[in-house]
Amino acid sequence: MIFPMQVNHFAAATCLPRWGAACMLAAAAASVFAQSKFEEDFDNRDKPWQEIAIQLPASPVDENLLSFQVSPTATQDFAVDAKSLSVGSDGVVRYTLVAKSRSGAKNISYEGIRCRTKEKKLYAFGHLDGTWGRSRRDEWEPLSGTRPSPQQAALAADYFCRDGMVAGTAADIVARIRRQQRLWANNIND
Fold first, then answer.
1. Mean pLDDT for the chain overall
2. Range of the domain at 111
3. What is the CATH number of the domain that holds 133?
4. pLDDT digit string (tens) for 7-54?
5. How do beta strands 86-87 and 132-134 pair?
6. Is 70 exceeded by the pLDDT of residue 98?
7. What sign does the CA torsion over 134, 136, 138, 142 have?
8. Residue 179: pLDDT above 50?
9. Residues 95/114, Cβ–Cβ less than 8 Å
10. 26 lies in some domain
């Protein structure tokens, strides 16, 4: 058996405005929160940049190396270890670089490029036994500075950076290097 509900019209008339006020108060609070979130995000642009802590990758293996051309007159061959390439939350593209001379000498380094500031950093050197030695020069330097490094400039301009930003995810960058598909438009030298 269903009993008809009795409605207390007085209670409904006084409760509805209370709920309406509560809803309006909640909406106002949400608006203030959204505004403060906007201001927080906006203000974050003025905060100083902070580099994340790095973890050195495993030593590169030949099957993961992706060759790229620096210039037709380069005296070394260069490759990036696809497994080590990452894009950090700090906006730095980090990777292991392998440079090989025509005589077979090999240099391995773990490096970073910061597209926003057009800078490079050398974190560590790889040893033959697969271990890493920290670089003594672990400061950010301009890509085109007193120590020119055409291999880093080529990576930044051709594969990593567009309009001062990282051009995609690590997977996007690896795919570009694998296909030798360069970012000709809007390169880092613009």
1. 81
2. 63-179
3. 2.40.128
4. 444 444 444 455 455 444 444 454 544 455 555 555 556 678 899 999
5. unpaired
6. yes
7. negative
8. yes
9. no
10. no
Q: pLDDT value at position 74?
A: 86
Tell me whether residue 173 is in a domain: yes
Q: What's the structural domain count of the chain?
A: 1
Q: How does 113-151 read in b/e, with b if 16+ C-beta sit within 10 Å?
A: bbbeebbbbbbbebeeeeebeeeeeeeeeebeeeeebeb
- pLDDT given for residue 146 in this prediction: 56
Q: Which residue carries 């608006």 as its tokens?
A: 31
Per residue, the 3-state secondary structure of the chain, as one string, reads CCCCCCCCHHHHHHHHHHHHHHHHHHHHHHHHHHHHHHHHHHHHCCCCCCCCCCCCCCCCCHHHEEEECCCCCCCEEEEEECCCCEECCCCEEEEEEEEEECCCCEEEEEEEEECCCCEEEEEEEECCCCCEEECCCCCCEECCCCCCCHHHHHHHHHHHEECCEECCCHHHHHHHHHHCCCCCCCCCCC
Would residue 163 count as lying in a domain? yes
Distances in Å between the Cα of 26 and the Cα atoms of 7, 103, 129 are 27, 72, 62
